[in-house]
Amino acid sequence: MRRFLLGEKDIPKKWYNLVADLPPLEPPITPDGKPITPQMLASIFPMNLIEQEISRQRWIDIPEEILEILYRWRPTPLCRAKYLEEFLKTPARIYYKDESFSPPGSHKPNTAVAQAWYNRQFGIRKLTTETGAGQWGSALAFACNLLGLECKVYMVRISYEQKPLRKIMMQIWNADCVASPSNETNVGRDILKRMPDTPGSLGIAISEAVEEAISDKTAKTRYSLGSVLNHVLLHQTIIGLEAKAQLRIAKEKIPDIIIGCAGGGSNFAGLSFPFIYDKINGAKIEIIPTEPTACPTMTRGIFAYDFGDAACKTPLLAMYTLGHAFIPPPIHAGGLRYHGMAPLVCQAINEGIISARSYNQLQCYESALLWAKTEGAICAPETSHAIACVIEEAQKAKEEGKEKVILFNYSGHGLMDLAGYKKYLSGELTDYPLPEDELQKSLRLIKGLPGTKRMR
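Structure (tokenized):
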């Protein structure tokens, strides 16, 4: 068998909250070092999502109304990559959770639908957000359209230019999408004045989206984030919970290796967190988040308190970071260009539960082409970072002569990313390993912030 399917009745009815099984996270703080209270976040997020953000309850019920929307594409298939295995001549068995089945084509709607629903329950009429490659922006546009909310998306300028079809997807779902930095916010205008040719960053786009949300005098607008925060990762755990049930159908035990690409951490967390629960309870699993060498947050960043946005409008979070002012190179994996990482993922790194790796852009595209030539599908540039690691581990299993079960998250298709493939095939792409002097320049801006726990 190559596809392992669940019926609608088998969809998980609860989300798994890893917060319950890790040591307490360092709390979000204000610029003067004081812990953030839920009331301080009320102008940015609705209180029902703030309650999820701070919850230590292990299992949280998924409302039936959210399940009714998720049934449009969930449960998603678990597939075996037999053709890649045969090409590599590896004894490893490779499985992938195919999240490209959602209407916008990625894992992002798992939380977009939940966030839009909770906001509507709270009486919110409009959501603002940022997007890098456009996967999150199109997912939130899709969710808001279904639930009758307005949606405004600030899309990182370089991706706005590289990926125009994702902007069209957002427009089809009635969202307003603008290139960031823009002339529509004080933050955007200031940055354009200082850096008129900037490619933009997720940190800048977040600043613009937050500014618009908190500036609404009717208090009917809130901000929505596609990754990083606890409640976002919570909603994604439906991926790993389904995968567990499907592996049982495949007559497999807990995988030896679990892999996912990580920009802010949501798709990696969605697959891996339910298995991290098993690892905490004694299972032997190697769990690997992957990232670009151009934006090496986990592999070369420091663990410190930092802002989530460029304009310092968000609370300070304890996380691995490259510095909130970091402007990443314009690689085509736009969803992996965020300066920080989800605090829960960072905590798992600090506890020694997971270990991150970084990959060069050309190796990732080479891996993506091998995937397309064997398995047939064209993956998102972000997903290619996971595939590069899968190939590496499958070859290692061959060298060791060991049977291993490898599971990864196929987090999105690349049908809107063909411009990047075209540049790769024509030899126009190069690797962008982040120079050490640029990294240190960015990090200097955060070393004076309060509450720094560890520099690396």
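The longest helix spans residues 381-400. The chain has two domains: 23-62+108-228, 70-105+231-443.
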